[in-house]
Amino acid sequence: MDLITIEEARAHCRADSDDDAMLEVYGAAAEESVQNFLNRRVFKDSDALAAAVLDDSAGDDPMVVTPVVKAAALLILGHLYRNREEVVMGDSAAAAQLPVGATTLLWPHRVGLGV
Q1: Domain assignment of residue 90, yes or no
Q2: DSSP character for 70?
Q3: How far apart are CA 72 and CA 34, in angstroms?
Q4: Residue 114 has pLDDT above 70, yes or no
Q5: Higher pLDDT, 113 or 22
Q6: CB contact at 8 A, 74 and 2
Q7: What is the pTM of this model?
Q8: Coiled-coil segments, which residues (predicted)?
């Protein structure tokens, strides 16, 4: 996890260190989901962003994590942690969506939506 610390993940999920391995997996998945939804890479700080720009791995429209983006990643992490089995919502498209709160937080930061 680059955007969320294990301590933040534990606190958000009210988990203890016995769940750290699972929290790391769900945290990494949450961060990847955030970046996929945003259509851009998100970096933990300006130094990480600058290094990625220098080595040409920053992609288009990179950004430094904001409290809104971190909160969305934590919402997704919490959802994955609490719902360890697939959540069925009637159709497969609905089941694949991010939690509503995360989508609401992230939407203003999306790029490259096309026409």
Answers
A1: yes
A2: H
A3: 7
A4: no
A5: 22
A6: no
A7: 0.86
A8: none
Domain count, the chain: 1
Tokens 């909160």 locate to: 71
Rounded (5°) CA angle 98-28-54: 110
What CA–CA distance (Å, rounded) separates 14 from 2?
20
Greater confidence, 93 or 113? Answer: 113
Q: Would 97 be classed as within a structural domain?
A: yes
* Residue 61 to residue 37: CA distance in whole angstroms: 13
pLDDT above 70 for 23? yes
Question: What is the Cα–Cα distance from 44 to 104, expressed in whole angstroms?
Answer: 21
Cα separation, 42 vs 59, whole angstroms: 10
85-89's contacts with Cβ under 8 Å and 24+ in sequence apart are none
Rounded CA Rg of the chain: 15
11: domain range?
6-109
Scanning the structure block, which residue is given the tokens 């890479």?
41
Q: Is residue 35 domain-resident? A: yes
The answer to whether position 115 is within a domain reads no
